[in-house]
Design goal:
The protein has 285 residues and is α/β, with parallel strands linked by helices. Helices cover 31% and strands 15% of the residues. The protein contains 9 helices and 10 strands. Strands 6-7-5-4-3-2-1-8-9-10 form a 10-stranded mixed beta sheet. A hairpin with a 4-residue loop joins β8 and β9 (228-230). α3 (88-97) runs parallel beside α5 (117-134). The radius of gyration is 19 Å and the shape is globular. The two termini are 24 Å apart.
């Protein structure tokens, strides 16, 4: 089995925010146990060089994050971590000292839903303080603003963009440079990723037809907090359970009849699963 470009590994599906763009998951809330994480790394370390510690949830909540990152380093795995940014002040020292950490993605669209201007400003101050320190390290930073369709009239969005413009001393305001799907380089190793508001493909999202393709099961796969393996990072409710990494090898799971049918369909631009037919992200391929 060829190596995946990355494997998504959900260390928790708990979150300290309740954003409108995230699904209200019916899965049991959990933190992945350290011993389970260690066992999973042993099973997947030969199948990728990069982990993304996210599907749903806020990974900075995990009480043993320091030991999880240390295990990633021990297994030679580089880590991408996606956070809403609110806990960066508490976790800054740990993150900046971790040799396993390659990239931190910060979801600014989550901050845009904070209840008031003081809460937003406090969170932004913590994010920008982290970015300032991270710029002195090899870590890449991706600031994500994935709710551009709601940008007009949203005072929080505008405040975020103004603060970024001022922080990086940009020669022109960001507002006029926003374009869905196009990233901007703000500084060396610091980027702004922009897109329209994303809709998760879980039901009752509408069926968009069975024609299309995806990178799921080809350059990545996802493992949820309970060990369930799913084809991609957007299957947050395990609509397509392919197996469980605690009981099977990743190679066996990816060679299962269901996984093979999905992967073959993608090569023929044919979508065999209802979740894939509801997914708007695959329309970009």
């Amino acid at each position: 089995m060829k190596k995946f470009k990355k494997i998504y590994l959900e260390i928790t599906n708990r979150c300290n925010l309740s954003c409108s763009f995230c699904p209200r998951s019916e899965r049991a809330k959990a933190f992945m146990r350290l011993e389970d994480f260690r066992a999973i790394l042993g099973k997947i370390k030969d199948h990728t060089d990069h982990l993304a510690l996210h599907v749903l949830g806020e990974p900075l909540l995990h009480p043993e994050l320091d030991e999880l990152l240390a295990l990633c380093q021990e297994h030679g795995l580089k880590v991408n971590l996606t956070t809403n940014g609110t806990l960066l002040p508490q976790r800054q020292g740990l993150l900046l000292a971790s040799p396993a950490l390659r990239q931190v993605n910060i979801s600014l669209h989550g901050l845009a839903e904070l209840p008031d201007a003081p809460a937003l400003e406090a969170a932004l101050a913590g994010v920008l303080a982290f970015v300032q320190e991270a710029m002195r390290t090899p870590i890449f930073i991706s600031l994500r603003l994935w709710n551009l369709s709601a940008a007009e009239g949203n005072g929080h969005n505008q405040h975020i963009l103004n603060r970024i413009t001022d922080f990086f001393a940009l020669p022109e305001p960001l507002t006029g440079r926003l374009a869905p799907g196009h990233g901007l380089t703000l500084a060396p190793k610091v980027f702004l990723s922009q897109n329209a508001r994303f809709t998760w493909p879980h039901a009752p999202a509408p069926d968009l037809g069975d024609k299309g393709t995806c990178r799921g099961l080809r350059d990545h796969v996802a493992i949820l907090a309970d060990g369930t393996v799913v084809p991609c990072c957007l299957d947050a409710e395990a609509d397509i359970p392919l197996g469980n990494i605690h009981h099977q090898s990743l190679a066996d799971i990816c060679a299962s009849p269901r996984a093979t049918t999905i992967r073959t369909g993608f090569t023929q631009r044919r979508l065999s699963e209802p979740l894939c037919r509801r997914c708007t992200f695959r329309q970009s391929f």
